[in-house]
Design goal:
Elements (H helix, E strand, L loop, with lengths): L4 H14 L40 E5 L4 E5 H7 L1 E6 L2 E6 L1
Antiparallel strand pairs: 1-2, 3-4
Length: 95
């Protein structure tokens, strides 16, 4: 049986209280390991054609000799990392 991250956190906190740990001694697990999936195959569209970006949206940009990319921080808020290839080199974009 798999427990949700919330159920695991509640179970842990209940055990910590039952064992008499002080509040400052508690370890709070918000998400399990690898609980936030990375973006491993990002898809891009031309800036002139995109309709999904707000003019005020914060982006992380990378500019090379032959390519330019913009990564949406709105998307990175939900994934935290993009594994990509830029100008033939593997990169990781993190937020």
């Amino acid at each position: 049986m798999r427990m949700s991250a919330l159920a695991m956190t509640v179970a842990f906190l209940g055990a910590a209280v039952a064992l008499g740990f002080a509040q400052s001694d508690r370890l709070v697990v918000v998400l399990p390991r690898d609980g936030i999936p990375s973006i491993d195959r990002p898809e891009f569209e031309a800036a002139a054609k995109t309709k999904s970006l707000d003019n005020n949206e914060l982006l992380i940009g990378i500019v090379g000799e032959h390519e330019q990319r913009a990564y949406s921080t709105w998307q990175l808020d939900r994934h935290e990392i993009v594994n990509d290839t830029f100008e033939g080199r593997p990169i990781a974009v993190t937020w």
